[in-house]
Design goal:
Layout: H1 10-22, H2 25-31, H3 36-50, E1 55-56, E2 63-64, H4 66-98, E3 100-105, H5 106-111, H6 113-122, E4 133-138, H7 140-148, E5 154-159, E6 172-187, H8 204-212, E7 216-221, H9 226-235, E8 247-253, H10 256-264, E9 269-273, H11 274-283, E10 286-288, E11 296-305, H12 311-323
Parallel strand pairs: 3-4, 3-5, 7-8, 7-9
Antiparallel strand pairs: 1-2, 5-11, 6-9, 6-10, 6-11
Helix pairs in contact: 1-2, 1-3, 1-4, 2-3
Length: 324
């Protein structure tokens, strides 16, 4: 390794400035709190790194050479920028230590999260405030990716005991923070009844009627949707040609909000979270398409990695566990 390729020590730069200011090796070494022989070696190492002499040692006091004079302002600027960068990095670390990073599925970020967060804040110890919050709202699959990539501390999602997750329980844990249910709904006809209806699944006469009528138009969730995975696991056996319910998928989307919009337009039956459609049910804009047997109970879960989180995140988890 040649002199110009050897590693540069920041101490050499600070020693260079000290000698340029004092013009005396002894005083500069004393100001830098190091022995003069070590100080002199630092200056020599810097000159070898640059490739030219930076000081004229024949003068008294020691004077900068033309190269030294050209280098001095650049070194001062570089050290200042390094100090600024260090301050910014520390500030970012301090900010991250008090920030909370959430990933949440679209429906929950709109309907559940704001109210739930207010309740959690109300249970915080006196004098403790929740730090800045960063929220990413996306499909369940995308939120799982954020957790696996350690880009979020918490995941707020729907869950069901019969549906597995990519988040290995050895590495992740969760608490149930709420309950919801997927209700089959349809737009109302002119009489206020469901435009598209489900028949009793356990009734023989109903099964006969299912075979004789046109396939039911259904609005379904995409594969990246957590609610879609729940529906497939829990209700998948009743759909399709070999199932007990003849259906025709007319629209597919990851987002429950979009399925709700299509249901309001009368496009078909959608299984939607009650928390998302309570206002529409009360107003009669959406009506139930079937009895309670078609309703799917689901959980609202807060998921976290089992590894240690920041102090702010651990404090939040403690409050959530107590509330759960």
């Amino acid at each position: 390794m040649g002199p110009g390729n050897r590693p540069l020590d920041v101490d050499w730069l600070e020693d260079f400035i000290a000698l340029a200011e004092s013009g005396n090796f002894s005083r500069a070494a004393q100001a830098r709190h190091i022995a003069q022989p070590a100080f002199s070696r630092h200056i020599k190492s810097l000159e070898e790194w640059v490739g030219v002499d930076l000081f004229d040692r024949t003068t008294h006091p020691v004077a900068l050479t033309a190269a030294g004079k050209r280098l001095l302002p650049d070194v001062e600027e570089a050290l200042q920028r390094l100090e600024t960068a260090r301050s910014h990095a520390r500030a970012a670390h301090e900010q991250a230590s008090v920030s909370l990073q959430f990933a949440a599925t679209h429906a929950l970020s709109l309907t559940f999260f704001p109210t739930w967060l207010s309740k959690v804040e109300a249970r915080l110890p006196v004098g403790r405030k929740m730090g800045p919050i960063q929220m990413v709202s996306d499909s369940f699959a995308a939120c799982e990716d954020l957790m696996l990539q350690k880009r979020a501390q918490f995941l707020l999602c729907h869950g069901h005991r019969d549906v597995a997750s990519r988040l290995d329980p050895v590495q992740f844990e969760y608490v149930i923070v709420g309950a919801d249910r997927l209700i089959p709904v349809s737009a109302a006809d002119k009489d206020g009844s469901a435009l598209h209806t489900l028949l009793a699944a356990d009734d023989a006469a109903s099964r006969s009627r299912v075979k004789s009528r046109a396939a039911l138009p259904v609005l379904t969730y995409g594969a990246a949707s957590g609610l879609g995975q729940i529906m497939q696991a829990v209700m998948g056996h009743v759909f399709g040609e070999r199932g007990t319910l003849a259906t025709h998928t007319v629209f597919t989307a990851h987002h429950a909000v979009l399925l709700k919009t299509m249901a309001l337009e009368g496009r078909g039956v959608a299984w939607l979270p009650h928390s998302l459609i309570s206002a529409e049910l009360a107003a009669g804009a959406l009506v139930r398409s079937g009895e309670d047997e078609w309703t799917v109970p689901i959980e609202v879960r807060l998921v976290r990695p089992r590894s240690a989180l920041s102090e702010a995140a651990e404090a939040l988890w403690s409050v959530v566990q107590e509330g759960a």
